[in-house]
């Protein structure tokens, strides 16, 4: 997987289908050589090495091509590494200090290239990990202050990815806002610098820390696509460049402009992973490769089948008590639910979002015997028991804030801005992190909690930490490090606990948080029609195995739209099925239909959660919106289709299926009709849902013979 030509300094990193080549040039700088289809070391030696020298006195070194562009010398592009030393000077000059090849786990290898600055005691290690079962390459950088004086990392990106010279480039990324997350944008990459960022202290609703680049000719099934994703759950910045010499590149890492990472003598800063992927199979193949990588190497328990969930929020709001929750739990169990989650309102003086946040003990008047009796009832009904928590927040009207007003992010003399009537606890403080871990681990142990919906409902403001030197800068990375630490400790103490990441919906979804949680709340917008757009964008990088999706009541609380129950179920069945409606108001007919749809989902959820996903149409395409899930061995497939209306969707169009066994035959489990794989893949399936406006359908196909299977 890792090979080296010492005479030329060339390194070749090989994955199952791709190769990544780099070399240390004559100046000592690590320089990119190529990234694309798989090559041998001998073949890679024939790659044209980009010219690193300045073309004229105005140009300097090319802004794209260095493995980690640094500040200093004749470099004028956006630096991945920018440092200010104690004497006020800046810059970095590469001096090679050796290399290491680590094989710490079966099927993987890690190359570490060590460097130091030629003048100052700053050491830089570039890490590259490749695996035998994925084309994803993991990169990160470790920086160490080997001197006796403090320094500041003004920019400390994880990695920079370089692309070849092409006639043009297109960038794919997500934009959005609260309740309208994951809007896919696919547009020409302009010349110059395109910055994607979050300054909010969280991953954010407004952008996602990943990009895909292509030459403008890729589609779902074909074309070269380069992509990169940052595993970080705080503020971040990605900068994509298109240069005048026809190249493109992306650098990315933690933080945003105006903040830095203080580095004390002897201290290290290890950046988060910035993983990259090259695919020749278009956006669909790129997405499936990211999905498989996430399931195999990111999620803690991806092999498990996630349960059908019920959440009490829309049924009760803050009006939560033992009797009402028990009644809802009985209805949920009769529907086939396997995990019952009590949402906000179960603790302290919480009667609205104005008070009680931070006082994490069961409300005495609503749960006089604590949560134990409710947990016993839920478990006795054959369901797991879950709770909503928001450990990083506090209401000013709470016992916690009255005792510890210094625990929140704040700037002395400035107002403490409240959003949703709450302030942000400074998780960068070890005492705050320890407090959160202590009450969380007691809560889980004392009340038999199987699942936590971990929410985070506002962005940072007045992001100060006046109690420590450089606190206003330390908190941005320290906050996330301690958040990860609390989650890691909590999971280690309670191995059976499962956690959902939530931040007002999709405000904190990234590979960093997914390494410590089991699923993600995709959006607070549960309108089924809007969700099709959100889920389409979400699926570009993240697998259905993490995508929590609920069936809620109509008219929808956010949009006022009314669509059939069946349609709402089929949309939610494209991910982890959850139910969030007020079951006390469902009619007997609705309860019966819901129970049948829950049972139908259980028959096919192994395909949704563990199979390969194919987007057979986009949210703006004519005809029905269609997504397919196929077993890796081609033995089964599920096709979900939704139609908004005859006029709005255009004429019915067949969809060509993917991932089937050539020569095989497939039986529709509902109708009994047998289809040829040749017809399904070459000519298509009539997936158009029967009916008028807001019709939907689910087709489950099982291989019955042919293709060497009888």
From TrEMBL:
Keyword annotations of the record: Glycosidase, Hydrolase
UniProt EC number: 3.2.1.22
InterPro entries (alphabetical): Aldolase_TIM (IPR013785), Alpga-gal_N_sf (IPR038417), Alpha-glycosidase_related (IPR050985), GH (IPR017853), Glyco_hydro_27/36_CS (IPR000111), Glyco_hydro_36 (IPR002252), Glyco_hydro_36_C (IPR031705), Glyco_hydro_36_N (IPR031704)
Domain Glycosyl hydrolase family 36 C-terminal span(s) in chain numbering: 626-701
Pfam families recorded: Glyco_hydro_36C, Glyco_hydro_36N, Melibiase
Domain Glycosyl hydrolase family 36 N-terminal span(s) in chain numbering: 29-260
Record field: catalytic activity: Hydrolysis of terminal, non-reducing alpha-D-galactose residues in alpha-D-galactosides, including galactose oligosaccharides, galactomannans and galactolipids
Superkingdom classification of source: Bacteria
PANTHER family: ALPHA-GALACTOSIDASE C-RELATED (PTHR43053:SF3), GLYCOSIDASE FAMILY 31 (PTHR43053)
Annotated family: Belongs to the glycosyl hydrolase.
Name by which UniProt lists this protein: Alpha-galactosidase
Lineage summary: Bacteria, Bacillati, Actinomycetota, Actinomycetes, Kitasatosporales
């Amino acid at each position: 997987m890792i090979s080296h030509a010492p005479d030329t300094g060339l390194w070749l990193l090989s994955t199952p289908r791709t190769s990544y080549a780099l070399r240390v040039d004559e100046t000592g700088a690590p320089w990119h050589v190529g990234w694309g289809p798989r090559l041998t070391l001998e073949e890679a030696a024939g790659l044209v090495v980009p010219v690193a020298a300045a073309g004229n006195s105005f140009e300097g070194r090319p802004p794209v091509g260095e493995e980690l562009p640094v500040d200093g010398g004749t470099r004028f592009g956006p630096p991945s590494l920018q440092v200010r030393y104690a004497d006020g000077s800046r810059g970095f000059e590469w001096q090679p200090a050796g290399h290491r090849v680590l094989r710490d786990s079966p099927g993987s290898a890690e190359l570490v290239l060590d460097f130091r600055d030629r003048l100052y005691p700053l050491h830089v290690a570039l890490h590259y990990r490749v695996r035998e079962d994925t084309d994803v390459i993991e990169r990160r950088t470790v920086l160490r202050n080997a001197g006796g004086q403090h320094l500041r990392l003004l920019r400390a990106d994880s990695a920079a990815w370089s692309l070849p010279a092409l006639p043009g480039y297109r960038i794919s990324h997500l934009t959005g806002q609260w309740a309208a997350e994951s809007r896919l944008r696919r547009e020409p990459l302009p010349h110059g610098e395109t910055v994607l960022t979050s300054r909010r202290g969280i991953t954010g609703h407004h952008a996602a820390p990943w990009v895909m680049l292509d030459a403008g000719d890729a589609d779902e099934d074909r074309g070269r696509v380069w992509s990169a994703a940052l595993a970080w759950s705080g503020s971040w910045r990605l900068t994509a460049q298109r240069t005048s010499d026809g190249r493109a590149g992306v650098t990315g890492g933690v933080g945003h402009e105006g903040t830095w990472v203080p580095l004390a003598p002897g201290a290290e800063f290890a950046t988060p992973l910035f993983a990259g992927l090259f695919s020749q199979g278009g956006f669909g193949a790129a997405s499936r490769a990211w999905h498989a990588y996430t399931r195999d190497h990111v999620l803690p328990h991806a092999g498990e089948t996630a349960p059908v969930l019920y959440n009490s929020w829309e049924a009760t709001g803050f009006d939560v008590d033992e009797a009402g929750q028990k009644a809802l739990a009985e209805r949920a169990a009769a529907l086939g639910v396997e995990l019952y989650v009590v949402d906000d309102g179960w603790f302290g003086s919480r009667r609205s979002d104005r008070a009680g946040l931070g006082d994490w003990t069961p409300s005495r008047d609503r749960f006089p015997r604590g949560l134990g009796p409710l947990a016993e009832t839920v478990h006795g009904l054959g369901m797991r028991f879950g709770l909503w928590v928001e450990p990083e927040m506090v209401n000013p009207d709470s016992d916690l804030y009255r005792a510890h007003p210094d625990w929140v992010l704040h700037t002395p003399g400035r107002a403490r801005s409240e959003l949703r009537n709450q302030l942000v606890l400074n998780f960068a403080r070890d005492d705050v992190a320890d407090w959160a871990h202590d009450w969380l681990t007691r809560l889980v142990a004392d009340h038999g909690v199987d699942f936590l919906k971990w929410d985070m409902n506002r962005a940072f403001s007045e992001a100060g930490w006046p109690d420590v030197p450089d606190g206003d800068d330390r908190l941005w990375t320290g906050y996330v490090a301690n958040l990860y630490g609390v989650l890691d400790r909590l999971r280690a103490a309670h191995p059976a606990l499962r956690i959902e990441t939530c931040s007002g919906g999709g405000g904190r979804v990234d590979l960093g948080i997914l390494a410590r949680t089991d699923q993600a709340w995709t959006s607070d917008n549960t309108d089924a029609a809007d969700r099709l757009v959100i889920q389409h964008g979400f699926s570009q990088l993240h697998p259905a195995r993490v995508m929590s999706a609920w069936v809620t009541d109509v008219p929808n609380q956010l949009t006022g739209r009314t669509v059939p129950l069946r349609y709402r179920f089929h949309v939610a069945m494209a991910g982890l099925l959850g139910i969030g409606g007020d079951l006390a108001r469902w009619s007997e007919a609705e309860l019966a239909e819901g129970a049948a749809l829950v049972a139908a989902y259980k028959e096919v959820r192994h395909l949704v959660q563990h199979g390969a996903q194919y987007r057979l149409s986009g949210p703006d395409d004519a005809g029905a919106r269609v997504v397919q899930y196929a077993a890796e061995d081609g033995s089964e497939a599920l096709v979900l289709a939704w139609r908004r209306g005859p006029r709005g969707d255009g004429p019915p169009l067949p969809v060509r299926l993917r991932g089937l066994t050539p020569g095989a035959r497939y039986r529709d489990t509902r109708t009994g009709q047998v289809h040829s794989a040749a017809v399904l893949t070459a000519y298509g399936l009539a997936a158009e849902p029967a009916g008028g406006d807001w019709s939907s359908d689910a087709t489950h196909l099982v291989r019955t013979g042919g293709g060497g299977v009888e």
